[in-house]
Amino acid sequence: MLVDEAEDEVHHPPPSLVPRLHAVIAYPLQHNNAHLPDNISAAHGRQSVEKFVQTQLQETREHIISMLTDALLGDKMAAEYLLCNLISSVYARRDILALGKLSLNLIGVPDGFADHFYKMLQKIVSKVFFLPMTLENLNEVPFVPRKDYAANRVTSGVLQLSEHTHLVLDETAMQPGRLDANGVRNLTALGNLITWQKVDYDFQYHTQEFQCNIPVIVMSKAKSMLTCDIQLYLQPTTAVENKESVYDSLLERLTPDYLERFRVYLSLTRLMDYALNDEVQKMVEEDFVSLRQRQGAQQITVDDFHRLLCVARLLSVSHGHARLTPDIWLRAKTMEQLRKALAPSARP
Fold first, then answer.
1. Per the count of CB atoms within 10 A, which of 18, 222, 224, 316 is most buried?
2. What is the 3-state secondary structure (H, E, C) of the chain?
3. pLDDT at residue 34, rounded to an integer
């Protein structure tokens, strides 16, 4: 009898050890922002959205870009890409492709920068996870959930994150050393999350794919070992030695009123509807053909075109536009051209 009770406790641990929540009725939420109506598609929700877009969106965007520019040591273009990353979200899947994601690799960040950046990001987004990519973490920490057949339960991993959790990877924390087999698997898991927005749970005898929706930012001194959608070399105009005072000043600026507006802005722009009408779609396709003819098919690939469309989409919704305009398309092309020109391989 005692053996049966002990075995039952192993397979059914008490709530004090494994917390659980029972629900009679559950409704999926569009967002977790308490400052917005639960359903922004309903009549009342649409009114709140329209009012914010008409009266506060552009001003709020300017404040956010100013704050992110300071946070990135004066690099305004990096601030624009960071804003696109913060409001990015997987809106559809085509075969194995996750459409809408925009992972960002900020290259050339100084030591200690990622920690300051994470503390600032904690203030403005609802969910963020910071992962220093030390050899110890890579080799010893379980990244993906794994089935424990002895306990008959799935043990958690650090990549078991809820939807729209912002993941900040600090590659500057990595030191010389050797990755073991677990470290290689963990790097592969990070690559799958960034590229395909999926986590493969380990059931020992097989893996089970679970889709996710996690915006990723990688901080590195050189080009990251992880392939990101946007690889951007940071161009600071503020002295790196002053980063502590810069972030102290930023945190003082984040008053409750500012934070509320910033969070409403980020939630609304991420959820905003977006579409390409026939006229703009034709313009974009003709422009792509023209670019390939002028620069060559090797310089402008299909992947480059998909990335450009994603940047243009995120720039559009960041301005409160549900449709792509010629001005935003031109701006997206200019940003991508400038970004590529910053890469060492593009310099004479």
1. 316
2. CHHHHHHHHHHCCCCCCCCCCCCCCCCCCCCCCCCCCCCCCCHHHHHHHHHHHHHCHHHHHHHHHHHHHHHCCCCHHHHHHHHHHHCCCCCEEECCEEECCCCEEEECCCCCHHHHHHHHHHHHCCCEEEEECCHHHHHHCCCCCEEECCCCEEECCCCCCCCCCEEEEEHHHCCCCCCCHHHHHHHHHHHHHHHHCEEEEECCCCEEEEECCCCEEEEECCCCCCCCCEEEECCCCCCHHHHHHHHHHHHHHCCHHHHHHHHHHHHHHHHCCCECCHHHHHHHHHHHHHHHHHHCCCCCCHHHHHHHHHHHHHHHHHCCCCECCHHHHHHHHHHHHHHHHHCHHHCC
3. 74
Kindly report the CA angle at 55 between 53 and 57, in degrees rounded to 5? 45
| Per-residue tokens: 20 | 């659980």
pLDDT score, position 45: 67
Contact (CB, 8 A) for 70 and 200: no
Distance CA 22, CA 67 (A): 41
pLDDT at 17: 74
Instruction: Give mean pLDDT in consecutive 10-residue pieces for the chain, a chain of 348 residues.
Output: 57 75 84 76 70 87 96 96 97 92 96 93 94 96 92 89 96 93 96 97 91 97 96 91 85 90 92 87 88 77 91 96 93 95 70
